[in-house]
């Protein structure tokens, strides 16, 4: 499965890594936007050198409890980075947004993949994604980022998430997005308790049966805190373990903060699973 991300390839025939680029201003660099852009570009190049197959950039915090930012603020945050970074990268940039205007501007500036936690449900998003012609990640979320972790509830979390994703894929196809351009994501941590997240991870092969590449974002998430008590700064071991368990269950793209460590773990999974090691 080789995806064409605005001319840049993304191979998901084996588990690949999506590196998260943190865009918060670097207090150790200078004080201007230009310095922040340059510092972020250097971090992105380092993620690629460490083995990232795609770089995810977002301008709206989607962590639990986060406030919404305006579309103008989102554009102001991400566009300078994409414009500067895209010409320097051989791998695609993924734009983490739910807004049609941001999708258009970001792809116009060089992004090659749309990562939408709202699964193209915002006004105009389906049409924008269809017109842009780049692959899309369609993610499940219960509720809204600001309140989604207050009381997540499901009768059958696996069935409901799988059903939602199938429905959104159908909506995408009806809007003119080829099935070959769609990736699906259960949205770990987005309106889910630890038990819900564990059930979804166990049942990842059920989602894989939809025949589309499955994306898993588990890196540093609160599931690790719930199981181990570790604070967010000390979740590397849990993140590696969850990434490997997801890959073993069929995930083809892991959204992670710790790229080098995840790539090394995946190399070991590949070696153990390989049939040609003598
Ligand atoms: C610590 C660090 C604790 C990060 C929580 C978090 C996903 C995603 C996010 C995901 C896809 C996050 C943008 C949440 N998660 N996109 N985005 N899948 N496709 N929280 O799971 O990283 S942001």
Task: Describe, in plain words, how this protein is organized in 3D.
- The protein is α/β, with parallel strands linked by helices.
- The protein has a domain at 12-88 and 142-172 and 185-270: Alpha-Beta Barrel (TIM Barrel).
- 42% of the residues lie in helices and 15% in strands.
- It contains 10 helices and 10 strands.
- An 8-stranded parallel beta sheet has the order 8-7-6-5-4-3-10-9. The protein has a two-stranded antiparallel ribbon with strand order 1-2.
- Helix 3 (100-108) links the parallel strand 5 (93-96) and strand 6 (113-116).
- Helix 3 packs parallel to helix 4 and helix 9 runs parallel beside helix 10.
- The longest helix has 19 residues, at 157-175.
- The chain is globular, with a radius of gyration of 18 Å.
- The chain starts with a strand and ends in a 5-residue tail after the last helix.
- The structure holds ligand 8Y4.
- Ligand 8Y4 binds next to strand 7.
What are the salient characteristics of this protein?
about 280 residues; alpha/beta; TIM Barrel; 8-stranded parallel β-sheet; 10 helices; about 40% helix; binds ligand 8Y4
Strand order of the largest sheet: 8-7-6-5-4-3-10-9
What is the averaged pLDDT score?
95
CATH superfamily name of the domain at 12-88 and 142-172 and 185-270? Dihydropteroate synthase-like
Separation of the first and last Cα atoms: 27 Å
**CATH first level of the domain at 12-88 and 142-172 and 185-270:** Alpha Beta
How would you sum up the global shape?
globular
Small-molecule binders: ligand 8Y4
């Amino acid at each position: 499965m080789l995806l064409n991300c605005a001319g840049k390839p993304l191979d998901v025939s084996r588990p690949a890594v999506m590196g998260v680029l943190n865009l918060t201003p670097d207090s150790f660099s200078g004080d201007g936007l230009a310095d922040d852009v340059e510092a972020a570009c250097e971090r992105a190049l380092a993620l690629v050198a460490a083995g990232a197959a795609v770089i995810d950039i977002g301008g709206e915090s989607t962590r639990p409890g986060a406030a919404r930012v305006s579309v103008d603020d989102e554009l102001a945050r991400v566009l300078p980075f994409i414009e500067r970074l895209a010409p320097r990268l051989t791998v695609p940039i993924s734009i983490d947004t739910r807004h049609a205007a941001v999708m258009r501007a970001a792809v116009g500036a060089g992004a090659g993949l749309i990562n939408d936690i709202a699964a193209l449900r915002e006004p105009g998003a389906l049409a924008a994604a269809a017109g842009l012609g780049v692959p899309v990640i369609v993610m499940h979320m219960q509720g809204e980022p600001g309140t989604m972790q207050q009381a997540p509830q499901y009768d059958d979390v696996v069935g409901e998430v799988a059903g939602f994703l199938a429905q959104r894929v159908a909506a995408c196809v009806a809007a003119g997005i080829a099935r070959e351009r769609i990736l699906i994501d259960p949205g770990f941590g987005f309106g889910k308790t630890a038990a819900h997240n564990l059930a979804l991870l166990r049942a990842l092969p059920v989602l894989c049966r939809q025949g589309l590449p499955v994306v898993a974002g588990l890196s540093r998430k609160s599931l690790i805190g719930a199981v181990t008590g570790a604070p967010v700064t000390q979740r590397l071991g849990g993140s590696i373990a969850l990434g490997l368990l997801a890959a073993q269950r069929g995930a083809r793209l892991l959204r992670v903060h710790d790229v080098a460590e995840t790539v090394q773990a995946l190399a070991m999974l590949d070696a153990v699973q390989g049939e040609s090691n003598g």
